[in-house]
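Protein: GST N-terminal domain-containing protein
Species: Chromera velia CCMP2878
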Amino acid sequence: MFVVAPLYTCLFSFSFVGLSSPVRSGIGLSKFIPRRVQQPRWKSSLLSLRRPTDMQPPTDASNVKLKLTYLQMKGFGEMLRLALFHGGLEFEDERISYEEVQRRRSEGLLPCGQVPVLEIDGVAHSQSMALLRWIGMRTGLFPVEHQLKIDAIHEAFADINKNLFPNWYGHILGRSPVDGALLVPMTDDQKSQTLELLNTVVLPCRLQRIEATYTSAGNDFFCGSAPTTADFQWYVMGSGLVEGTYCEGVSTQILDQCPNLRRIIENVAKLPRVVEWNAAHPE
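Structure follows.
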């Protein structure tokens, strides 16, 4: 019976039959590894980034230097600003134009080629929800006993944002990760149908499910009497929906059947640090 030995067994056996190890002989294992396929040009700009994996973010954020970079709007950056400010973490609030985003993307200065970006002691980190959780874990806004519920709420809001992306951009695939160009334009008929279904089916259904599953008439916030990262995310999204600024064309009455969700918006708006922040940033 012919038996094929595992690869690692064969490698070890070489030294016992007089063959020299590639490492000991100075050849190096790289000689035995195929060369990498040449990378596309857009990947070359990534070489200038300091990778987040080079540094483990500190567990105590009170003594680190924080710089938050986002567009000159609320969008996906405002919940981070509010969480930082409410949590008492000092940070530089950098607001840049979309043209500046394009420049930094082309020069490889933005992880994942987009904003928001949170620099922690000079190292850039991206992805808004990862940043929000990091802030929450260091400010008490992401308590361990409620993490599963908070994460579920974040995912539910992420589903809503995915539904809104075509309406935000007027293009099915949004922006190109390479240069920010808009991809696959929608026809006027598609835009009209999308907006109608958002207002009559998609958003009412998703919001009412969140209302029924994750809120309670007896709670001020999603997880009881204290706010969490989920409340700050919802405050930015929900107040924008009510005001008609979160997504153009979405009905401002979209929350009429969600009294608990409306109350959470009002309660977050009353938090002293939120009142202070909004007074200083009336945009």
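Remarks: The beta strands are 66-71, 92-96, 117-120, 123-126.
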